[in-house]
Amino acid sequence: MSNPALKTSDPSSPDDPQQHDDAAGYYVPGDPIADTKAPGGPVEDKWDTRQFEARIVNPANRRKVSVIMVGTGLAGGSAAATLGEAGYQVKTFCYQDSPRRAHSIAAQGGINAAKNYKGDGDSVHRLFYDTIKGGDYRSRETNVFRLAQVSTNIIDQCVAQGVPFAREYGGLLDNRSFGGVQVSRTFYARGQTGQQLLLGAYQALERQIGAGTVQQYSRHEMVELVVVDGRARGVIVRDMVTGELETHLADVVVLASGGYGNVFFLSTNAMGCNVTATWRAHRKGAYMANPCYTQIHPTCIPVSGAHQSKLTLMSESLRNDGRIWVPKDAKDADKDPREIAEDDRDYYLERIYPSFGNLVPRDIASRQAKNMCDEGRGVGPEVEGVRRGVYLDFSEAIGRLGRPAIESKYGNLFDMYARITGEDPYEVPMRIYPAVHYVMGGLWVDYDLQSTIPGLFVAGEANFSDHGANRLGASALMQGLADGYFVLPNTIRDYLADSPFEKIEESHPAVVEARESAEARINHFLSNKGTRSVDSYHRELGNIMWEYCGMERTEDGLKKAIDLIRTLKDDFWRNVKVLGTGDGVNQSLEKAGRVADFFELGELMCIDALNRRESCGGHFRGESQTEDGEALRHDDQYAYVAAWEWAGEGEKPVLHKEDLVYEAVKMAARSYK
Amino acid sequence: MKLTLKIWRQAGPQAEGGIRTYDVDEISEDMSFLEMLDVLNEQLINDDEEPIVFDHDCREGICGSCDLMINGEAHGPEVTTTCQLHMRSFRDGETITVEPWRAAAFPIIKDLMVDRSAFDRIIARGGFVSVNTGAAPDAHATPVPKESADRAFDVATCIGCGACVAACPNGSASLFLGAKITHLGELPQGQAERDTRVASMVAQHDHEGFGGCTNIGECTSACPKGIPLDVISQLNKDLRTAIRHGH
Which end of chain A has the lower number of beta carbons within 10 A, N or C? Predict the structure, then answer.
């Protein structure tokens, strides 16, 4: 069927500014794409209008409508709980042994909401503006405004569920401040906000499971999407305990399967986070938008050695009280930091960005840390000849507020740091360095969160819509819960109002095809008898991605990366070694399927980065910088969402551009000085 | 470091299991225990032996996936999760025994992986506040004393790893249960369902085959999140009140 989201205008006109298109030859230009679901009128009214216009499924008919939810973190768990409450028949799938272990649980710092409880001038409009600006004018205005609007409901909902947010002595909620923002709008539960919010959503989900409206399938991984007559109608999942491939069919499929930062191997993501659910959907026709938009988080514990399996994030909230510095003189790099005199320290963020200081947005803090280390002023152990660390120092705050105050605010983070590094951060400054954290790219969705495949909706980190080129702190939790509790349950009903949909049998050719393709992949890996482990390929792919498609990218580097990825991918398919069988737990087999998809994604990320010859947010193109080395955006050429269409095995991807239109805010150069 | 590892291998739930011995070399003290197992698994794959199955995910001490008995202790010699246990806690040349959680209510799936879905079923029987989405009053409508909010948070940090069960000679999940009962019981939002919650969660706990609590206290000393033993007193108190109220 034709997709209403696609415009049928001519391909890019010949005067399209492609004079710097480094990616020419790597892709095929396609038709423009546009969001057709956001209603007209002022941005403040759009969400109310859409909720009113979206058709309704009457309560008696809802139990006849079935929904598949893949992923049960903040977005998927909250959406499934809400749809269950509404009376739909919901099936949820997660690869973990329980929805309570989704990686949302690891988010530390907090969740933003425009409550203005502090009376410091916050408002929906200000949260909206900060988020657009923090996204470097590369996110969609309509979606972000809605995010800011519903943010206030999230806090109400979570408090009612019993989420133990931090409180002041009067019993009211406390707030703190995060990077890129000059008001206190972040609600938090010590350093474990994601955990408490996820447990709230998980408990709401378990309540529905107990009530029988939701069926939960744990240790199940989606391995294919079923598309029948152009509509998403189900999934093929692998039961990771029995190894059995199961077919589940429904009226609508929602992917809330998180982000793909693990393409870099070393990241702050949980080990199991993967791209497979969204990539399988991409191969079936869902466009992948802005895949090269990766957030590099500035405050992670630095890499210690070659066997490291993951990087651990230290909450950005630490920057409220910690001061970041490096020695002025590289000769002091290996000194005990306590012996470096105040005058010999360079508090570089406070020096370069006096109004935001240590609370500059993540991309700026990350890049400056890299610059300091590249200059030779990094601290900590040398890894491959460079010291990759800067100090995050609490001595001034401990002196000002006392150690108990710091313990009560950040105690668990300090303990975690001490455990991992073997150093006491109350005595010696922490060492931090940037690491891959969150991805802003994901499946393209319209205002209703529907992908380019009708009946396939995408929520949370798995979609692209709200964060632009950079994500401000405490906004990912906000998006996950906004999508899950409030947006998706309201928009999906318009699609479901067309029900009853035609019933699909498991013998339908599209179902058989999906199942066979999943089987073929599994059989290939099990019968390949190669010589190299899956992890060794994953690690090597990750190194390529970090080196050439990480914090700083160049045309030459990206082209080199694409060649390296293609060569390694060929070798992977010929030479990967997966032992054991398919009829039980086989963790190497699970990883092989995921890494296979990471290869294809990694290549697309590099092509996307090549096409975007501008620096924006966390994505620094060496070819595009100001005289003093700051990121230089090109709004005249790149104010678009790059939505990539899969063209087939071995074919060049097709680039569809969605123009970003700003009506409520004026695009401006971002300055935090 | 050089280490000798004695590890429980079991091909499936019905298969007979046994200890196998492996040697590893060049282990750095900065590695986490799970990274050490990654190294062993790479070695096994090279030797054409199936890698050891174990549960893990976030590797930063918060998801609660990891579930290893190390030298007979839940999560190992330090009070933390296995992913946050570092090899600096062991000596060069040491022999380390690694087994899965031991509890009747946590059946073994394969090698070191166990089934903890009983915990989800306990939560599904009342470990929540019943509030439909969109029906909540303004968050500031009900002040919560800071002490209550802090206490609720402290016990809500339970990660559901099951170390308490594995450490308990009775295989009781009373610490897990008590943490949730106390978390929701501390807050005004949790009062309406207080009696029914404790009665039905305890009934499910017993139904799943967890043992009874005899106040041994191993649970709290093994808990990586420091959930205090007095949540069990709270659990018992709430249960008595519920029974008195006719539940």
Answer: N
